[in-house]
Write a structure and sequence with these properties.
mainly alpha; 31% helix
Length: 139
């Protein structure tokens, strides 16, 4: 298996690097990441998704994507397929979101720091994730 992106390669794209901390050196919580997911992912990966798409419809569905060898590898944004595809430029095949409006560098940094810090989500009853803002052009 070929090595994925190294932390050093990604660090140049991000202000947070791979430390799992934001610019204030505090852990990034799910509450901070939720708006990023709802604005950029849930339109296509929510309740009305295609069967072959991973679900981000609620925190229980998201939890199924977190773990070693899964879409989100806690502690390792560079090894997380979810993170790899959101840092692609709009022109790159497979870039997410595929809508012509890539997520901002600040949002990338927030996702990186959340994953690097363990990608924790709240336990207990599922929290529904709702699409925010404009939907993808294809909808």
């Amino acid at each position: 298996m070929k090595a994925l992106f190294s932390c050093g390669m990604i660090a140049s794209l991000l202000t947070a690097g791979c430390a799992g901390l934001n610019e204030h050196k505090t852990p990034v919580s799910f509450a901070a990441v939720r708006p990023v997911l709802e604005a950029n992912c849930v339109h296509c990966h929510g309740v009305n998704r295609l069967a072959n798409m991973p679900s981000f419809s609620d925190t229980h569905a998201l939890a199924k994507l977190i773990g070693p060898g899964n879409w989100i590898v806690p502690g390792h944004p560079e090894a997380s397929r979810f993170y790899q595809i959101v840092i692609y430029a709009d022109e790159h095949p497979g870039a997410m979101p595929p809508t012509g409006h890539a997520i901002s560098k600040a949002e990338m940094a927030k996702l990186s720091a959340w994953i690097a810090g363990g990608a924790s989500i709240p336990e207990g009853s599922p929290i529904k994730l709702n699409p925010r803002g404009r939907g993808p052009r294809s909808m």
